Amino acid sequence: MKKFELSVLSIAPLRQGETMKEGIDAVVTLAKAVDAMGYKRIWIAEHHNHDAYASAATVSIVQHLLTHTERIRVGSGGVMLPNHSPLVVAEQFGTLETLFPDRVDLSLGRAPGTDQQTADVIRRSNHKGVFFFEKEVQEILRYVGTEEEQGDVRAYPGLDTHVPVFILGSSTGSAKIAARLGLPYAFGAQFSPETMEEALHIYRQNFRPSKYLQEPYVLAAINIIAADSMEEASFIASSHLQVCIDIYTNNLSQLIPPQKDFLESLSPYELEILHYKLGYTIMGDSKTVRRELIEFQEKYNVDEIIALSNIHDSKKEIQSYKIFKQVSDSLNNEI
To answer: Most CB atoms closer than 10 Å: which of 61, 131, 191, 304?
Structure first.
């Protein structure tokens, strides 16, 4: 088992009753807190056509967080590339890198980040964008690369900014692309862990060293619900569990307050969703988190964990990240 870096994923969730502005303000508060704790980066996910999230304009949230933090890297987790022009993405993140040197990440994904009808509206005539994902990643790498790499169309700002690019995915297909391009690979186990072991094996076995990266670098996003006791962790986790159920019943809602005896209130079908569809989740007090974290790292041996704490109470959300950081630092010190 090797040492690992720690980062944060935010989907900019809205708690029930919150306005969009309040949801964004909560992400700023979180970013400031994890910056002070020493987390390496915070990434913002792209979601469209849902009042449960405030992160549709990912690049705007990224810039907002960069403005309000001091050290932590800030980036996309990710930009869903088929929704966007590679040139415009390079210009946007090139601009951010120009304004905030060495603090910007660009993680790129193939999924639409929304339902098919909304994806059609976003993409308009670009319905085949998903099939050109690898080519468009290469275009972005060129746009943010050196003078010698450029063609007639160039990104200003963007040129020579060398914004770090990551491949985001939850399948073996994305693992192969990351390996071929010699880029770091971020696996979304927080919602789809089923193929993680196979995908990471493919990525590591097929990785081609590049000017961007000499050895494979794996990031894994997982759910973390950490609290002072098992009882409290089980209680506050109910908000996260409801989100999982909502996704698979097509009934996504804003983050609900935690509920006592939540599991006992669920139908057999809802319990089956949690059994088979819950993303990789570490939940409990510090002792339990440590034990499950060791199990995770012994199995997957990742270079970096990106933690998502989907908790209704923003103070308990920050406390969850604090406990996870303390446990991880203690474990890393022993390795």
So the answer is: 61
- Mean pLDDT, consecutive 10-residue segments, the chain of 335 residues? 97 93 97 98 92 93 98 95 94 98 97 64 59 93 97 96 97 96 97 93 98 98 98 96 88 88 94 91 98 97 97 97 98 95
* CA angle centred on 139, ends 133 and 141, rounded to 5°: 105
The phi, psi pair for 290, rounded to 5°, reads -60, -50
Looking at residue 186, its pLDDT comes to 98
pTM recorded for the entire structure:
0.94
Q: Which of 22, 188, 210 is nearest to 110 (CA)?
A: 188
What's the chain's average pLDDT? 93
Reported in sequence order, the residue ranges of the chain that DSSP labels E, i.e. its strands, are: 5-10, 41-44, 73-76, 79-80, 104-109, 165-169, 185-187, 218-226, 281-284, 304-308
Q: List, as one string, the DSSP characters of 235-304.
A: HHHHHHHHHHHHHHTT---SBPPP-TTTGGGS-HHHHHHHHHHPPPEEEESHHHHHHHHHHHHHHH--SE
Do 318 and 27 meet the contact criterion of CB atoms below 8 Å apart?
no
Q: How does 281-292 read in b/e, with b if 16+ C-beta sit within 10 Å?
A: bbbbbbebbbeb
Cβ atoms of residues 113 and 47 within 8 Å: yes
Among 328, 302, 218, CA closest to 1: 302
Amino acid at site 41: R
Over the stretch 238-250, which tens digit does the pLDDT of each residue have? 999 998 898 888 8
Q: What class, spelled out in words, does domain 5-225+300-318 have in CATH?
A: alpha beta
- Is residue 34 within 8 Å of residue 319, measured between CB atoms? no
Nearest to 197 by CA among 237, 231, 230, 170: 170
